[in-house]
Design goal:
single chain; alpha+beta; 141 residues; 4 helices; 5 strands
Length: 141
């Protein structure tokens, strides 16, 4: 299972700037992305240029899919709120059902530091190099 991140608007390589809003989703055992927004929980969307961050857990695939289904049932579009009940809430609520990482899912800052920060820092470096090459045609290391 993994968490997926993408810019809320645009694409990472072209549009993303440090501090821009990100949209977060989570995959089931088949790699399908589940996401929550003002329309409720949905799957099957084609995400372009996203980060896929593995979450190290020992949960069985069937058990994880069941957890994700049950969480999805609770997150109805009527409950969506930009600040209080959003895509991040959906992901952390889903993962909080897994005992071995539940403690990291209680606080968004703790979750981010534990699972997301390193990957997003590496992605930012890659984006910077990519944009430099796009602009100048080369990059000196």
């Amino acid at each position: 299972m993994s968490v997926t991140l993408k810019p809320t608007d645009g694409l990472f390589l072209r549009d993303y700037k440090n501090g821009s809003d990100l949209h977060i989703g989570i995959t089931n055992s088949k790699g399908e992305i589940f996401e929550f927004d003002s329309r409720g929980v949905s799957t099957g969307a084609c995400w372009k240029q996203f980060l896929n961050i593995q979450i190290p857990v020992s949960t069985k695939k069937e058990e994880w899919d069941l957890i994700l289904e049950k969480t999805s049932e609770k997150f109805k579009h009527e409950r969506y709120d930009d600040s209080l009940m959003n895509c991040f809430s959906f992901v952390t609520s889903s993962l909080a059902s897994i005992e071995e990482i539940a403690e990291f899912c209680k606080d968004k800052a703790v979750f981010s530091e534990k699972f997301l920060t390193e990957s997003t820092k590496r992605a930012a470096k890659y984006i910077s190099v990519y944009r430099h090459i796009e602009k100048y045609g080369f990059y000196i290391i």
